[in-house]
Design goal:
By secondary structure, this protein is of the alpha+beta class. It folds into three domains: 197 residues, no CATH class; 65 residues; 145 residues, Heat Shock Protein 90. Helices cover 58% and strands 10% of the residues. The protein has 13 helices and nine strands. A hairpin with a 4-residue loop joins β8 and β9. α4 runs parallel beside α6. The longest helix is centred in the middle third of the chain and has 80 residues. It is elongated. The protein starts with 6 loop residues before the first helix and ends in a 16-residue tail after the last helix. This is histidine kinase. It catalyses: ATP + protein L-histidine = ADP + protein N-phospho-L-histidine. InterPro entries: 2C_sensor_his_kinase, HATPase_C_sf, HATPase_dom, His_kinase_dom, HisK_dim/P_dom, HisK_dim/P_sf, RegB, Sig_transdc_His_kin-like_C. Keywords: ATP-binding, Cell membrane, Kinase, Membrane, Nucleotide-binding, Phosphoprotein, Transferase, Transmembrane, Transmembrane helix.
Length: 441
């Protein structure tokens, strides 16, 4: 048993579009560039005061170019930052820093590490293709700066040069830094984005469950409140039909009115059965909650057995939805049987869902519950390579209710245990029913 998310989760990924944020705000790039300009000016002033020799005019012109770019963006800021515009801005910074490095000693420049800043920022905000392009450009410019860099001069006129082996080591370190910082930043950002998207889908799924529950209560109240007036209409229509037997046309109208009242009453009874009374909206026996969670998957093939003895618990949409995802996973990968068992110990309530499928791959056990563990398109029945959003939603919802989940193999397939402190799940069942809301007619 693992996560093969239900069709509802698939629709969440296709129909619910999270707002597309800017890759990085232009204001952020401008602020970062001001910090870089301040650092560059400070380095130039310190080197000048120490008597270090370098081409001051070209260096100052490069810093002035950055200042000009920032002032232009300040006076004419774009409404939104597109990925292409962000790449151009970071590319400008990369060229400016690399050229400064080449003019101020190349690999001997102690601030050469700052050439990694643009590609690191890109890795945290742009897609892999754009990051790869900037990374390759960074390596190329570092190589040019190392090959064509102009040496610095000491106050007495001697050249400041690095030993060739040290220069090579510095170049290798910068190239490794490009790969490491860009790869690490991009991976962390992608995982944070996946988690954010999965949490958004979780909130939408829970919101839907709550709306359905509230709708059930409204329907039950409507069925209850409208039963009496419909019975009165039926009674009067029947009496009118008896009195109008001498007028076939009016008699037929009265019969039609009585039949319509019967039909309305039948529809409301059917709808009322789908709703829950006030007490059941808030609390229910543990077995009833498990049956509610398992009901969408009871007729999908494998036999679903519920062996449950337990207290009255909170009938929380989040709990039901989380358990439903776990049961769905078991049904998806079971050979013929899914067993849901409960155990109550002092201070603890345990719900166990087990199937007779192939079990979890051992290499994935430690990662179960991570969002988007692998691509949904790779999920096949009988394969556990599709675990992702559905199980993440279940784990998130159940943990928010105070539960702790554990995943294991055995019995003979996969086993999921959900443990609640009893005071976090138990509900009071000896409470008075409230009045159904009045419906104005």
């Amino acid at each position: 048993m693992t996560d093969a998310p239900e069709a509802e989760d698939d629709r969440l990924s296709t129909q619910i579009d999270t707002p597309k944020a800017e890759p990085i705000r232009m204001r952020t790039l401008v602020h970062l560039r001001w910090f870089a300009i301040g650092g560059q000016m400070a380095a130039v002033i310190v080197a000048w005061s120490m008597g270090i020799g370098f081409l001051k005019t070209p260096v100052l012109l490069l810093i002035a170019a950055s200042i000009t770019m920032n002032l232009w963006l300040f006076l004419r800021p774009p409404k939104r930052t597109s990925p292409g515009r962000a790449v151009l801005q970071l590319g400008f910074d990369l060229v400016q820093i690399s050229t400064l490095m080449a003019l101020t000693g190349g690999m001997a420049n102690p601030f050469a590490l700052l050439v990694l800043a643009p590609v690191t920022i890109a890795a945290a905000s742009l897609n892999a293709r754009q990051v790869l392009a900037l990374g390759m450009a960074t390596v190329a410019l570092i190589t040019l700066a190392a090959t064509l860099g102009l040496p610095l001069r000491e106050p007495d006129g001697d050249l400041l040069r690095m030993e060739p082996i040290l220069a090579l080591g510095h170049w290798v370190a910068l190239v490794i830094g490009v790969v490491f910082f860009a790869g690490y930043a991009h991976r962390v950002t992608a995982e944070l984005s996946d988690t954010s998207n999965a949490l958004f889908a979780t909130q939408m799924a829970l919101s839907r469950e709550q709306r359905l529950q509230h709708l059930g209560g409204v329907v039950a109240a409507a069925a209850h409140e409208m039963g009496t007036p419909l019975a009165t209409i039926k009674l009067i229509a029947g009496e009118l039909a008896d009195e109008l037997k001498d007028d076939p046309e009016l008699h037929a109208d009265a019969i039609a009115l009585r039949d319509s009242a019967d039909r309305c009453a039948a529809i409301l009874r059917s709808m009322g059965r789908a709703g829950k009374h006030d007490l059941h909206m808030r609390a229910a026996p543990l077995r009833a909650v498990l049956e509610d969670a398992a009901s969408p998957h009871a007729d999908r093939g494998p036999l679903v057995e519920i062996h449950a003895e337990g207290p009255v618990v909170r009938r929380d949409p989040a709990i039901i939805h989380g358990l439903r995802n776990l049961i769905q996973n078991a049904v998806d990968f079971a050979e013929s049987r899914v067993v849901i068992e409960t155990q109550e110990t002092p201070g603890l309530l345990v719900v166990t869902v087990r199937d007779d499928g192939p079990g979890y791959p051992p290499q994935l056990l430690s990662r179960i519950g991570d969002p988007y563990l692998s691509r949904r398109a790779d999920a096949q029945r009988g394969s556990y390579e599709g675990m992702g959003l559905g199980l993440f939603i279940a784990k998130t919802l159940l943990e928010r209710s105070g539960a702790r989940l554990s995943f294991a193999n055995g019995g003979p397939g996969a086993v999921v245990s959900v443990r609640w402190p009893i005071d976090r799940i138990r509900a009071r069942d000896r409470v008075a029913l409230t009045h159904n809301p009045s419906i104005e007619t």
